[in-house]
Amino acid sequence: MIALKTRSELTVMRENGQTLAAILAEVCRQAVPGKSTAFLDEMAEDLLRQAGAKPAFKGYRGYPATICASLNEEVVHGIPTRTRILREGDILSVDIGLLRDGLYSDTAMTVAVGEIDEQTRHLLQVTEASLWCGIEQVTLGNRLSDISHAIGSYIEREGLHVVKEYVGHGIGRDLHEDPQIPNYGPPGNGPRLQAGMVFAIEPMVKNDPDPTMVLDDGWTVVTASGGVAAHFEHTVAITEAGIDVLTRGGEVRRSG
Ligand code: MF3
Ligand code: CO
Ligand code: CO
Fold first, then answer.
1. Residue 102 domain-assigned (yes or no)
2. Is the peptide bond before 179 cis (omega within 30 degrees of 0)?
3. pTM higher than 0.90 for the full model?
């Protein structure tokens, strides 16, 4: 069952989304050569707590950290450590979730550490654009799988591959609510979109067609080929007035 949010819940979720977007941007600004993923994690937790929020992932099914920090061939759920040091040419996916006033928010992006090659730049651009293809379909009366189809067909048209093992999700009083939102599939299926629905839409994209694998730590998802992967995620609400991208606005600007 898809839990519809009230107006006042949406107001809180909007505030939460804006707080989280700003924190993700700040963390990503610090993703520069020489920093460890644990450094970014500590910073993220400090910023969340200063904002009166709690990390949503810490303790979730035993997950040990505030952010997921997935480097290069890591797709999602990379655990931050002191020993993973960012280097020029890496890409880093940062996923962060927040809980405040009983409501969750979830957002992610992949950033370049210094200069990256052309093919990897394309991967990042396509993944982010695919998220916006999905978001465009979040309109009253559309069906759920219209989102999935828009994302997946765009990625395939660009010659890249959707990660099929992990999906987007409803979000609100729980981090993961119904429905599941795959990043591929035919359009025109599933429930019609209604005001009060809130979704975390999150395409994950890689260069190879093979299934991903999970490392022995039980969390880190990696590509089978060792090729790089990217992940972008927004928490998005449907209101009577239309679509509202709650976690929008975290611009990343870096001086060097
Ligand atoms: N943020 C992930 C998602 O987008 C879930 C992470 S759960 C964790 O749904 F435990 F790995 F953090
Ligand atoms: Co997430
Ligand atoms: Co999510």
1. yes
2. yes
3. yes
